Amino acid sequence: MPRRRHFLDAANAPAADGRDMRAPAEAADAPGNLLPTASIVGQAMGEARRALGLVLVGAAVLLAMLVGERWLSSTAEQAAARRHAEALRVAGAMRLVDLERTTAAQMAVITGQPRWVERFDSQRLEFERLQAEARSLAPAHAIERFDSETLSATAELEDMRESAFEAVTVGAADVARKIFEGNRYREQSALLQQAIADFSEATVAAAGAEINALRRRNALFGAGLLVCGGLLGAFLWRRLAGSRTRFLHAEQRVKHLAASDLLTGLPNRAALHDEMAAAMARAERAGTHLAVLMIDLDRFKPINDRHGHLVGDRVLKEVARRLCHILRGGETCARYGGDEFVVLVDDDVQPSAAHHLAERVVRAMSEPMQIGPLSVTIGATVGIARFPDDGRDADELLRKADSALYRAKAESRGGLSFYNVGLDELVAERAALEQAMRDGLTRGEFVAYFQPIVELNSQRVQSVELLARWQHPQRGLLPPAQFIALAEDAGLIGALMLSVLRNAFAELPALPAHWRVSVNVAPQQIQDETLVPQLLALLAEHGVPPARLDVELTETALVRDTSAARRVMRDLKLAGFTVTLDDFGTGHSSLAYLAELDFDKIKIDRSFVHTLRERPQSAKVVDAIIGLSRSLGVPAVAEGIETEADATRLLRMGCALGQGYLFGRPVPAGELPGLGEGPRATAA
């Protein structure tokens, strides 16, 4: 069955953090580098507005051009029409004047009266004026043709008419009649009439052609405007279609952003609830089961605090990648918030299948992660709830998976637990205890107890170990086993240590000055770069020299983060503290690694001391640790000594120091044995 990454379409979403609890730090690493939701929608809407604006501007320009062209065309057409009308009028007037001149000439010949000659002469001036007006209206080629055709005819006709009029004047009407009736006069007169007709026709045709040309130009311009309008409409359609596509894409991106965690690309809490509701509805109809796995990263917060959000974000992205890699068909993953993830299995899951999946998750998270030059190990704890057995809605299932997670964390980190009906009470009790712890830190309810560490050969107290006790207002005095793990889970271990140290330093004046005070540092605190400055500030506040404080670091904590271990060991030694390697033998450190760490004592874990007589293997381990301490030139301290026989055997094996109920239980400073030994420390 193909592996399913998660239930969002965009499986490889850009990385940025939706950050229910933290702000994104590596949006630049995300493929595509997504814009914010408002920018995506705004960009699509902006493009649509720009396209519409361009079209409106283009339409306004086209409209202005159309109006301007229509005005210019109308003006030109009106001028051409006027010229056409003038050409028609002038042509008609020329024919009429020519006819009147011909009639006046004929009447002068027939009647012999001088007044007809005078009329003929007066019409000549009018004819010349009309010719000049016609030339102003006619095209150049018509004028040239008219001049070439009429120049000689007009001159010859004028000569013949002058001769005829002179004949009429002297009474020779017959001579004048012969001139007008002669073939030459008729030919030249006909030639002039035809030339006038052609000239008039050419003038009118030119005016009409101009009008037609204007109309054709108007038609072409109109067609051009229509084409431009069509292109503009096509442009608008394409841009709006593109804007619609981008807007739909933006809408999809908005939906994706609303449903996905931007850092890991996984579905977020809201999308998880939707998917769980759909999956439960399917399971309800089919009569099948669901499993919800609540996954909490064990050591993420110290890594994030020490190395910063950039490293923390990359760790979360690697966690998401590993989770997606191990999921199979029907299994989906979401980021629930902070360092919590949820896996939803919507097949007909048996408890064993959910158990195996949880084991795969724990194994995948326990593998070291290479984050740039850093190698970090976080681990994970898993709580499991099932539908419909443990709940019938998403919130209830998640709450009960979280309850199972609480129990798994309380039992051991890197484990898993199924929900059962008793967990709600346990979780409520744990939540109340956590709140009471916060209140107790404010009220100073955590008190300092001390257990002596003695020299085995003399049983003289050499130093004391500081141990916390909680003076609970209702439950009385609580040992560390009932609250230390909770303090670590709640991120209160640092504040708890400082509070108890402050109380312990107030008791130091009652203790011999040569006694050192040992204090345990939790694994999370090793990754806190403010640890040493905080200790120095507290010592300075009470006037206690750093050499008076012995800091105990567990072997497991040192192995877990070697770079942080080297740093904190270096800082502690430079500040003047002594350092003890605590619970030695329970971790997996190598001798080569131990040789790099500058510690002052080795503590043998109590589990080996308790089984010293029953298990030969324990005796061999203890003997090897004591031999190692001698070779390194540091004393060994055996924890958990409860019998004289164990103390004697350890002394014979070469162990220098011991601690346990044999020499004294943890007690307040005033009840410690050996308080009369040596001078007291001066009060701060």
From TrEMBL:
CDD domains: EAL, GGDEF. Residues 1-29 are annotated as: Disordered. It comes from the Bacteria. One of its GO terms (molecular function) is catalytic activity. The chain crosses the membrane at residues 51-68, 219-237. Residues 430-680 form the EAL domain. Keywords: Membrane, Transmembrane, Transmembrane helix. Pfam families: EAL, GGDEF. The keyword Membrane applies. SMART domains: EAL (SM00052), GGDEF (SM00267). Residues 288-421 form the GGDEF domain. Gene3D superfamilies: 3.30.70.270, EAL domain. This is Diguanylate cyclase/phosphodiesterase.
